Amino acid sequence: MCGIAGILGSPDPARLELMMEAMRTRGPDDSGLHTGPGIGLGHRRLSILDLSALGRQPMESQGLRVVYNGEIYNFRELRADLEAHGRVFRSRTDTEVLLALYEAEGTDCVRRLRGMFAFAIWDPRGPEPTLFLARDPRRR
Length: 140
Known about the structure:
Elements: E1 3-8, H1 13-22, E2 30-36, E3 39-45, E4 59-61, E5 64-72, H2 75-84, H3 94-105, E6 115-123, E7 130-135
Antiparallel strand pairs: 1-3, 2-3, 4-5, 5-6, 6-7
């Protein structure tokens, strides 16, 4: 199990560090932070699928940042589809597949996800930066 945290607006790195410390038991293998204009994202990692450093979060691609917890059961099929359309992957993580799917399909990406998950994607592109939050529909 992993843990995610975030602050929208003016992120205080010290506050984000305290949030991360409170989740230490959820992700004892690694942690990562990203702070930038308007956003602070944090992640505690429990390494399961890709034990390399390539799975570190917050993960970045094309200016996008993601923090994610869970498992996308159909990520291998999604990855194969994205690869068939020219996408090249660096890791074997479902996190990278999630980020690539968002790049390709925007917020509609959630329609194709099967699994148990919660994530936050910071998208600073365009005229207004966007924080997209989603979780699987089975959680209550």
